[in-house]
Design brief:
Layout lengths: L12 E2 L2 H14 L4 H19 L5 E6 L3 H15 L3 E6 L8 H12 L4 E3 L4 H4 L2 E5 L11 H12 L4 E4 L21 E5 L9 H7 L1 E5 L4 H7 L4 E4 L21 E5 L6 H13 L4 E5 L5 H5 L6 E3 L3 H7 L2 E4 L7 H17 L3 E3 L2 H6 L11 E3 L3 H8 L3 H6 L1 H12 L2 E4 L5 E3 L4 E4 L11 H14 L4 H23 L9 H11 L1
Parallel strand pairs: 2-3, 2-5, 3-4, 5-6, 6-7, 7-8, 9-18, 10-11, 10-13, 11-12, 13-14, 14-15, 15-16
Antiparallel strand pairs: 1-9, 16-17, 17-18
Helix pairs in contact: 1-8, 2-3, 2-4, 3-4, 9-17, 14-16, 17-18, 18-19
Cofactor: K(+); Mg(2+)
InterPro entries: Carbohydrate_kinase_pred_CS, CARKD, Nnr, Ribokinase-like, YjeF_N_dom, YjeF_N_dom_sf
Keywords: ATP-binding, Isomerase, Lyase, Metal-binding, Multifunctional enzyme, NAD, NADP, Nucleotide-binding, Potassium
Length: 500
């Protein structure tokens, strides 16, 4: 049996920004250090990352604000200057004297001969790299115009950017831009990984995410409450060898419902993905006009267009939605499947058009063992909000979807979120090459196959999403992102599931 036993590393956990701020001081104290020392370590870590990113860069532009994030920036600037780099430090209010540890870092910069200037766009022409220390994790309102203007200018340039803790202007908890946010090439996040950096637009704005615990990770882990998990394929143990005396019935009977006339490809992708993931028997119930297209070239699939009730009785779990459509045939099939699975409490994966049909029902269907797999558009229809609302606060709406249907919600996209009402996880794998027709159909088949083989909904949803995304990463590493087809994932998934 598979499990998701996490390592003790904080790199597999997510922490809200306020949780980090509340406990980093005590974590430092328990680690026999101070917050000023953490600031020094943060600045040094940022400079180290800058050197790794651009070892030939001789001119740095450091943008500082007014809080502790600025203190980290002053330390990074000092490290760069000590290494012989030319460093320009710019602030929105150059004459403002900072307080606390940030003030100490600022004064050290001045005492060493450093100057603080007002930002000028011309400085970007000289710089080989920008360190972004304008705004930290404490912002909770739309940013001021003077910050927005700097951010716009930096984003319009081609100069690489390293952000400290969070790209300036990004809500560290939700990943929502607070009017404007820096588009970083690298973000060095400190003490704990913030959830907004791992999904949606936040993941895009972060670029490469680098985690530094600043030497207090062990103590911090005993004090702070994680917001969720950050899933990596290495966190999942093997499915284990199959029993010698097992047979096809041992590994489940999966029914895939969809494939309306003219949309046979979607259900074929889902059903074949299930076979490649080890489901023992897979049957596709499709429109009569799609039988030949679904069965051609894959004789291992059982395909029919009649006796849906009998097929449901046969099945140990169900996938519904790929290529289903929303016409009369689709609505009848949807109603039959949903009523059966609700009355029998049968595991079900609801995807694609089945989600659109589900959104039309005033009374929500609820199941003990169900996985909903919406993208932002489908989630918006399920919850009666806009797509922009969903993408602006993906964690909130994934949870709302899970709560409304008492299901596990897999909110697809960059940094797919898995929420089961009680806990939340984000997949760290995946790439834009997977934004192609049929990729979601393959995912639904993978999830169905894992349920068919006896995995719990919690484990199947987390492992299935991670397996699907890591397969896409492996393909991208080998062939590149452009031109990836959904069916290319079959062999990659099969390889991974047998390696684990």
């Amino acid at each position: 049996m598979l499990d998701t036993q996490l390592t003790s590393s904080l790199s597999y956990k997510l922490f809200r920004a306020d949780e980090v701020r509340s406990h980093e001081g005590q974590a430092a104290q328990q680690s026999a250090t101070s917050l000023l020392t953490l600031m020094e370590r943060a600045g040094a870590a940022v400079f180290k990352q800058c050197q790794a990113m651009r070892p030939d860069c001789e001119t740095y532009l450091v943008l500082v604000g007014q809080g502790n994030n600025a203190g980290d920036g002053y330390i990074a600037a000092s490290c760069a200057r000590q290494a012989g780099k030319q460093v320009h430090v710019c602030a929105v209010e150059p004459d403002r004297i900072l307080e606390g540890d940030a003030g100490i870092a600022q004064q050290r910069w001045r005492d060493a001969g450093g100057t603080i200037a007002r930002f000028e766009a011309s400085l970007l022409q000289e710089a080989g790299l920008v360190i972004d220390a304008l705004l930290g994790t404490g912002i909770n309102t739309y940013i001021r115009n003077e910050f927005a203007q700097i951010i716009d200018t930096v984003n319009a340039s081609a100069v690489p950017v390293v952000s400290i803790d969070v790209p300036s202007g990004l809500d560290a908890n939700t990943g929502q831009s607070m009017g404007r946010c820096i588009h970083a090439d690298v973000t060095v996040t400190l003490v704990g990984i913030k959830p907004g950096l791992t999904t949606g637009a936040g993941k895009q704005s972060c670029g490469q995410l680098v985690y530094e615990d600043l030497g207090v990770g062990k103590a911090f882990a005993t004090l702070a409450k994680p917001f969720g998990s950050w899933l990596d394929i290495q966190q999942f143990s093997q499915l284990g060898p199959r029993d010698v005396h097992s047979h096809k019935g041992t590994y489940g009977r999966l029914l895939c419902v969809g494939g309306n006339k003219g949309t046979a490809g979607a259900i074929r992708l889902s059903a074949e993905a299930a076979l490649r993931c080890g489901a023992g028997m897979v049957r596709a119930f499709v429109h009569e006009g799609s039988i030949i297209q679904v069965s051609a070239g894959r004789p291992e699939l059982m395909v029919s267009s009649e006796n849906l009730e009998e097929a449901l009785e046969w099945a140990s779990c169900v996938v519904i939605g790929p290529g289903l459509g929303q016409d009369g045939w689709a609505q009848e099939a949807f109603a039959t499947v949903m009523k059966h699975c609700q009355s029998e409490q049968k595991p079900i994966v609801v995807d694609a058009d089945a989600l659109n049909l589900l959104s039309r029902h005033a009374t929500a269907f609820t199941f003990e063992q169900s996985i909903l797999t919406p993208h932002a558009g489908e989630a918006s229809r399920l919850l009666g909000v806009s797509v922009e609302d969903v993408e602006g606060d993906r964690f909130n709406y994934a949870k709302q979807c899970a709560q409304r249907y008492h299901a596990t919600c897999v909110l697809k996209g960059a940094g797919t979120i898995i929420d089961n009402e009680k806990s939340v996880a984000v997949c760290r794998h995946g790439n834009p090459g997977m934004a192609t027709a049929g990729s979601g159909d393959v995912l639904s088949g993978i999830l169905g196959a894992l349920l068919a083989q006896g995995l719990s909904v919690d484990i199947a949803s987390r492992y299935g999403v991670t397996l699907h995304a890591k397969a896409g990463d492996d393909l991208a590493a080998r062939y590149g992102q452009r031109g990836m087809l959904a069916s290319d994932l079959f062999d990659a998934v099969r390889t991974l599931i047998n390696q684990q």
